[in-house]
Amino acid sequence: LGRAYERQMLLSEARKKYERAASLAEELAKESDTAAARRNVSISLGQLGSICELERNYEKAIGYYERVLDILKKEAEDHDTLEVKRDKAVNYSALARAYFGLRKVTESIDYHKKSIAAYEEIHTAARTDLSEKDLLIAYRNTGRVLLRVSQPDNAIPHLEKALNIVRAQLAKEETVYSDRDLGEILGDLAEAYGMVDEFTRQTELLEELLMINKEIAEKSGSVEDNNRVAGIYSRLGYAARSEGNLTKAVEHFTASLEIREALSERSDETRLLDDLAHSHFDMGSILVSLGSKNARVFLARAAEIVKILIERCPEDRFYERLIGSINMMLMFLPE
To answer: Which of 41, 203, 263, 297 has the smallest set of CB atoms within 10 Å of its CB?
Structure first.
């Protein structure tokens, strides 16, 4: 029942059911101190920790997860089975998430690394699709956390390992992975390489990502998938600009802008308008660098769109700052 309520995001009701389950499990564990009884206690406490995470009560979640870890460590002293090892790995990941929720980055990264070490040990002992999937998720999650705290040098090795696993799985005739899984990791890696100014490698990854997403967009035809393609063209434009290849940057920004102009005829969602404004701004900015008079046309169009966004989102000060920047650029451009 607790899981049913949790799936419906009825967290208060879910917590009550999990608390009752934990209470019963602890009573049974006192009567019969068996591995199965102790595992039921750890499962119930872990579920309570998960509810606290969803409620953003990270300190309380950590309390539950630490109790789970104590049980698992004691269990490992007597029966350090692969099941116990995996439970510990899962719990390390949960603690990593909760500490990150508290913005305690050092503790979060430490637990992510413990999770990786545990999953690597499991995968070495039993090379199964499940153990490989667990390891992939651990590498990817650790890499993403390191990216978010601006540690790209440390993120890259983890993300490269995740990429290798997905590539190997996609080479098999039967796999649970898809090109979207590959695309997610390619995108993260491209971001990481861009942060360390390795633009050639970043461009290689983005070009592969572009090919995957163009195929997905052609099949689905959805606004979301096509806008994702436009976003990748923009990222390629930024990479080319950073390398000093302004002509190539214009080519990529043009491709992005054309897609987003077409999408604007299908939908006027605020998110799409925001992207369209940025595409015009990117094009205008790069043309300013090239000394082109056409820069004014794109910057003026960006300003028009931003005014609409200001009307829609008056509380968002970002758009006021953006239009200020655009107007400043327009002031110094020839008519």
So the answer is: 297
Q: What is the pLDDT of residues 300-321, one digit of tens each?
A: 999 999 999 999 999 999 999 9
Closest CA to 132 of 143, 119, 144: 119
> For 310-319, b where at least 16 C-beta lie within 10 A, e where not — what string?
beeeeeeeeb
Residue whose entry in the numeric block shows the structure tokens 């690394």: 113
3-state secondary structure the chain: CHHHHHHCCCHHHHHHHHHHHHHHHHHHHHHCCCHHHHHHHHHHHHHHHHHHHHCCCHHHHHHHHHHHHHHHHHHHHHCCCHHHHHHHHHHHHHHHHHHHHCCCHHHHHHHHHHHHHHHHHHHHHCCCHHHHHHHHHHHHHHHHHHHHCCCHHHHHHHHHHHHHHHHHHHCCCCCCCCHHHHHHHHHHHHHHHHHCCCHHHHHHHHHHHHHHHHHHHHHHCCHHHHHHHHHHHHHHHHHHHHCCCHHHHHHHHHHHHHHHHHHHCCCCCHHHHHHHHHHHHHHHHHHHHCCCCCHHHHHHHHHHHHHHHHHHCCCCHHHHHHHHHHHHHHHCCCC
- The pair of three-digit structure tokens given for residue 247, joined into one six-digit string: 């002509």
Distances (CA, A) of 193 to 148, 160, 168, 198: 14, 11, 22, 5
pLDDT of residue 5: 60
Lowest mean pLDDT among 126-130, 191-195, 256-260, 322-326: 126-130
